Description:
The protein is mainly beta. 2% of the residues lie in helices and 40% in strands. It is built from one helix and 28 strands. It has a five-stranded mixed sheet, with no helix packed on it. The longest helix has 9 residues.
Amino acid sequence: MLYRHGLNLVVAGFLAGLPALAHAEASQDDDRAAGNPSGSANASPQQVPDYQWTRVTLEAPFAARDGAGALVFKGRMWLLGGWNPGDKPHFPRICNNEVWSSADGAAWTLVKPNTFLDSAFDPAGDWEGRHTAGYAVFKDRMWIVGGDVNQGHYHNDVWNSADGKTWVRVNRGQDVPWGPRALHYTVVFQDKIWVMGGQTIPQFAKQDEIFYRDIWNSGDGIHWQRVVPEEPYWLARGMIGGSAVFHDRMWILGGGTYDTPTTPTRRFYNDVWSSADGVRWTKHLDAAPWPPRQYHDVAVFDDRMWVLEGYHRNGGNRNDVWHSDDGVHWHELPGTPWAPRHAASVFVHDGALWMVAGNNMRPDVWKLERHPSAK
């Protein structure tokens, strides 16, 4: 990823239903000023669970990275690839394609070493190093769907693995029909893999500028069907990590667009949408109480949706954490102990929500559980 700070382009990490309620960012500040430290401007009346973070380690054995895939498979957490151009020994080509796994977040095993080393690499035999791709667990395998533009081209491939060590390109000789794109949002829903949104980034991989707001799904990663949504639905966007499938619906929580030469101003969103079929979408909030963001992560844990960290329009990484049991009433979890970041790797595993690495560029591991008194 590249981020624009002022005029300088610098490397910093590379990509109806309930009523609509508007909550400006100012409402969050007003709540805090009024003595509501949780910032839950539209908190639901029911009791909100209490949670606590535990530091597992600040120095996991894998190198620091952002945008690494995060999957839970066969009782373990799996960390796939990632980005760190400042660490040439571990990321000789900006991204790598190594795979790590852990059952407890403290002990990590290198399942697949990085093979993405130089121009001799054969992309037919293994997936090119990448980050912020589509990641899924589907049909008893881990999947990588598309990728980024760090190699000067778009990844139009789909790979899967039953063990994290051996990967097979499932669409060999048949590029995905929804390419070229990066920064797309990927979920598993109704026994299909869904790809939504994303964009082209012409300054890194030559292509006409496109900001997507289309939807595709597939039952096998080879044959893709386009789903045509009815208006109104969400504006073009991507840059959402993780996935949120909650109460038999797919959810879009914020997101944004990356700057391009002809559209240099990024967009940042904090609206909330959901759909039971990909065709009809409900807008639950015009603006959630959490500030607009991109490169954040979303998850479903403890029968709640979560929005964690990200990158904000004011030019900084974030470390705020929000949760909701309905998509409308959001509660901020105060006292986040880990450093601000974006493009982290977030897992739901072993009764906890895990925060791993990201653009803080430290190999740290944290887990969130219900407070013992709240269990």
